[in-house]
Amino acid sequence: MYPRKLTRSVITNPDYPVVETKGGKLRGLWEEGVFLFRGVQYATAKRFHMPQPVQPWEGTKEAIIYGPVCKEIHTPIAHDEYNVPHYHYIQDEDCLYLNIWTKHIEKGVKRPVMVWIHGGGFSTGSSIELYAYDGMELCDFGDVVVVSLNHRLNCIGYLDLSDFGEEYRYTGNLGQADLVAALQWIHDNIDAFGGDPGNVTIMGQSGGGGKVNALIQTPAADGLYHRAVIQSGLMTGSKDLLPERSKALGRAVAAELGLTQETIHEIETVPYYILARAAQKASKELGVGWSPVKDMDYYYGSGLTNPFREETKKIPMLVGSVLGEFDQNYNQVYAPGSKNEWDEALVNRLFDERFGENAQAVKDAQRKAYPRAKVVDAIFTNKGGRIAARDYCFKRFEEGCAPAYNWLFNLECPLNSGTIPWHNAEEAYMFHNACYLEASYIPGVSEDLQDQMTGAWVAFAYTGDPNHVGMATWDAATKENGACMIFDVRTRQEFHHDDELISLLPDKPIMGSNSRAPETTFGGGPRQSL
Amino acid sequence: MYPRKLTRSVITNPDYPVVETKGGKLRGLWEEGVFLFRGVQYATAKRFHMPQPVQPWEGTKEAIIYGPVCKEIHTPIAHDEYNVPHYHYIQDEDCLYLNIWTKHIEKGVKRPVMVWIHGGGFSTGSSIELYAYDGMELCDFGDVVVVSLNHRLNCIGYLDLSDFGEEYRYTGNLGQADLVAALQWIHDNIDAFGGDPGNVTIMGQSGGGGKVNALIQTPAADGLYHRAVIQSGLMTGSKDLLPERSKALGRAVAAELGLTQETIHEIETVPYYILARAAQKASKELGVGWSPVKDMDYYYGSGLTNPFREETKKIPMLVGSVLGEFDQNYNQVYAPGSKNEWDEALVNRLFDERFGENAQAVKDAQRKAYPRAKVVDAIFTNKGGRIAARDYCFKRFEEGCAPAYNWLFNLECPLNSGTIPWHNAEEAYMFHNACYLEASYIPGVSEDLQDQMTGAWVAFAYTGDPNHVGMATWDAATKENGACMIFDVRTRQEFHHDDELISLLPDKPIMGSNSRAPETTFGGGPRQSL
User: Fold this and answer.
1) Domains of chain A
2) Whole-number pLDDT of residue B326
3) Nearest Cα residue to A317 out of A122, A434, A465
4) Eight-state DSSP code of residue B384
5) Which helix (H) or strand (E) segment is B203 a member of?
6) Contact state of B13 with A417 under an 8 Å Cβ cutoff
7) Which among A40, A433, B125, B252 is least buried, having the fewest CB atoms inside 10 angstroms?
8) Residues near B34 by Cβ (< 8 Å), separated by ≥ 6?
9) CB A203, CB A148: distance < 8 Å
10) ipTM value
């Protein structure tokens, strides 16, 4: 997202740059050597109906402004704006837009296409929610075509109304159907933007990683992508949403709105905030959230716990996580001062509180896993995300899939004189945007690490193999080798390095226990209902 | 606002940088040589009550995240995101926060303080709404202390409930009282941030300029500022809001909510969106908008049409406008292609449509006023803002005030192969942010012009006189000399240069006549009610 400091005149003239899509002509802009097309509509959709192709138009439409993003079911709060700067934007149910960054607008150039699918679970976020998502540097660094997209979320993307009739059959997976529609648009149009429809990498973080995991188990997406990346998108213990529960939620929301089989169509026109309030109430009461429905028709369930489908075994993957994840978001506070300056007595007390009788064993395992790091870092180390990413790779190998490469992002950030990286921290490094982020930028270090990491992602997009000459060798992960690429000041491959440590960490998340966010002069607190 | 490309490590450590305010300690950050303090609470306020000083606190609070901005009464749309990029942010009624950029955090340094008051009429916007408002470059360029602030707007800032009792006496001017509270906080605390409480410049654009105009006529603000800047904040024909009309609106909103003298206190707790809907309905029915009330107690009415108060005659001012203003916002389209490539027949037709029997006279006057510009530019030239800014300066002189300097921003921007500057276009140039804005950046030109223009604003903040060695001489404006500094590729002072042209232009605004915004693949249209 803008602004960045410009050095060349930005061009967006009436007749340049213009690209002809199947729907009609689009006029984008040229900036610092990259063509940008913002707010490109890839489909239209009536509420609770499947996405449809865009109607063709005459003349040229402008694509220099981002399209609206999906309605959010919660009001945002500013608690994590420093660690994870957001680009808040205009929300609308009409949100099926994508953005393109490319260095070429002629056909036949056939550069790899890297499609970014945003996080925020399946309920919030957008293609432009985080500054780290800006595709310009990645496009320029790798000479790849970067696409980011919005789709329907929360109660308009994943509310299963299939009990109310055949026309609502896929309502529990509409958000996923939007993703498929976007991939279809890319397949049909990306050649005109210099992209190779035969080489599309889908990648996403957090919920976006979850969406990639889901697409791999979605027959409708087969053939529309060729490589896949999951970043912090898997968690041990997460369960597939089964139709009996998703349908129960659909019925409960309808009941909350006073709708019956006879009047159910009114759900297509009730104001969003009324629908959202009913949906939140029913969701809370039933304990069912927003996610794709494993109906064994549109979607076959998470690859972490279900067999991989034969059709997607050929897809090579990058699957990894961040050291801290949710255990180190929002710049958590356990004690005054910097964690790197806490004295031994304080660290011992915190270890006793957190690990109980395992305190000493965790210390020993931490020293073994990360000999150059502080012992105290174990407090901020996430277990569930690390195990899930690793085991997903092992499972791919065991089921005879194409190589899956496991990674761990572990760069200590300068915030608070040293902070373990949080959920989202790696994104700026694979998007080559690390120099733009206050909380994580380290002069001389960030430049090198983003070259290595973005380089790996780009190499993977080109060839299906992330190895490149600027980085240590990276082996596909197997249960036997336990191979993991650690992105850090010294990027290195290790083997089974943290088996013992993560087995000793407690399962329960640390948030909400004895940690707290730092105090501002304004309130923080959880997201509010609409 | 971030991000910008960093070259040095950003410091925000537990104990540095920390500044002690009257309320308590605040921890900000150091970035590229500038200290930033974001989201600093300057007052608290119950809805429909006057702002109160912040309660003191123990320990250190973080000030590295922007505070919430005021609730907006309309939903934003994306029509002007390219010309005027926005930083949308979290909205809350709890919005009395300011932001500080400074190069010093010791007392006694006494740098000039430049306080930015945002636009958006009196109903929308925030201290961080536009990327152009980022204070870092201005601070760094001028070694000045930059402050930007939020305050209450629309129906929570300017709804006159004074008919309902003494406790609501100033409700029609609460948004202004917030501004005064912010200036008081600055007066009491800015020394600790390297600022001089004895040298405070207030400045604002559009509604922000209107707020500066109003502060000059507000006794409560006397002594809290020493120089003033109005940018595109005055318009011919605008009328003061008088108590009989503002009170009628207050009564109508209460009635719409079903409230009486006995139950009026419930208006303090009704959900904002319900209040806002009632307020919009009543506002529309009565034809009364949101602005300060000329009650001859808190506020004495616009300086454009009322006598200047003796107390503020000593305030030097910069007062100016932009060539296009509202007549050239949103990249308007009259005909296909670039206006600079329209043929003579088309230009003649547009002139006939717009100017009728004056078409030829306008052409002649345009050539005389701007001999190096295209004749067609007259179509996009704003009349009301230009006359109001000029006449305001003349009136200052006539009433024996300190010098008032008139200016006109007239840089043709590269968008669409040449576009007349729009409302907001000058902000990036006096904030030294022109290199960050896609729509207006011109390599080699923007760098020079922003040095000249920011230099003038900084010189004015230091001395009350905008003249500096990097720019042509600039005389205070009088009706006799008609002096105007024209900021353009060739910045120059002219005298009575456009008297004839603007007298020939029609009064009615051009928007909504035969112009239209360019087409995107998503809808534009007016802002929606909540």
Assistant:
1) 28-53+62-239+297-315 (3.40.50.1820), 322-504 (no CATH)
2) 84
3) A465
4) H
5) strand B195-205
6) yes
7) B252
8) B101, B102, B103, B136, B139, B140
9) no
10) 0.93
At a CB cut-off of 8 Å and minimum separation 6, what does B377 contact?
B323, B339, B366, B370, B420
Q: What is the tens place of the pLDDT at every residue in B108-140? A: 999 999 999 999 999 999 999 999 999 999 999
Q: How many CB pairs under 8 A join A and B?
A: 189
Determine the Cα–Cα distance for residues B499 and B352; give it in Å rounded to an integer. Answer: 21
Asked if A436 lies within 8 A of B6 by C-beta distance, the reply is: yes
Among the partner-chain residues A65, A78, A79, the one whose CB lies closest to the CB of B520 is A65
Contact between residue B409 and residue B383 where contact means Cβ atoms under 8 Å apart: no
Cα distance between residue B410 and residue A326, in whole Å = 51
Q: For residues B26-45, b (16+ Cβ closer than 10 Å) or e, as one string?
A: bbbbbbeebbbbbbbbbbeb
The answer to whether residue B55 neighbours chain A at the CB level (below 8 Å) is: no
B416 → chain A, closest CA residue: A13
The residues facing B496 across adjacent strands are none
**A322 Rama sector, left if φ>0, alpha if ψ -120 to 50, beta otherwise:** beta
Mode of pairing for the β-strands spanning A317-322 and A404-409: parallel
Residue A133 DSSP one-character state: G
Q: Which residues of B touch A41 (CB under 8 A)?
A: 521-522
Find the mean pLDDT for residues B293-299: 98
Residue B78 has pLDDT above 80, yes or no: no
* Contact at CB, B6 and A82, closer than 8 angstroms: no
State the nearest Cα–Cα gap between A196 and chain B, in angstroms.
24
Residue A117's DSSP bridge partners are A149, A204
For A32, name the nearest residue in chain B, comparing CA atoms only: B438
Q: Which residue is closest to A81 within chain B, CA to CA?
A: B65
CA distance linking residue B70 with residue B80, whole number of Å:
20
| Whether residue A197 has a cis bond before it, omega within 30° of 0 | no
**Contact assignment for A82 to B65 by CB distance below 8 Å:** yes
Rounded to whole angstroms, the Cα distance separating B339 from B414 reads: 12
Contacts of A107 (CB under 8 A, 6+ apart): A191, A192, A194
Residue B406's closest CA among B327, B498, B470? B498
Quick check: B245 and B288 in contact, CB under 8 A? Answer: yes
Burial label for A94, CB within 10 Å (0-12, 13-18, 19+), is middle
B489 has a pLDDT exceeding 50: yes
pLDDT tens-digit profile of B178-196?
A: 999 999 999 999 999 999 9
Query: In this structure, what is the dihedral angle of CA atoms A289, A294, A297, A303, given to the nearest 10 degrees?
Result: 130
Token pair of B109, please? Answer: 């340094």
Distance in angstroms (rounded) separating the CA atoms of residues B214 and B176:
8
Token output for B344:
């003579």
Yes or no, beta carbons of B414 and A11 under 8 Å apart: yes
| Model pLDDT, residue B512 | 43
Longest dimension (CA), chain A: 72
Taking contacts as CB-CB distances below 8 angstroms, the residues of chain A near B338 are 13-14
B167 min Cα distance to partner chain A (Å): 26
With a cut of 60, say whether residue B510 has pLDDT above it.
no
Contact B436 A336 (CB under 8 A): no
Please report where in the chains the tokens 């006159």 appear, as a residue.
Answer: B160
Q: φ, ψ for residue B178 (rounded to 5)?
A: -60, -45
DSSP for B276-323 reads HHHHHHHHHHHT--S--B--SSS----TTTSPPPGGGTT--EEEEEES
Kindly state the average pLDDT of the residues A308-330: 91
Distance CA A294, CA A173 (A): 9
Q: In angstroms, rounded to a whole number, what is the distance separating the alpha carbons of residues B423 and B325?
A: 4
Structure confidence by residue, pLDDT tens digits, A99-118: 999 999 999 999 999 999 99
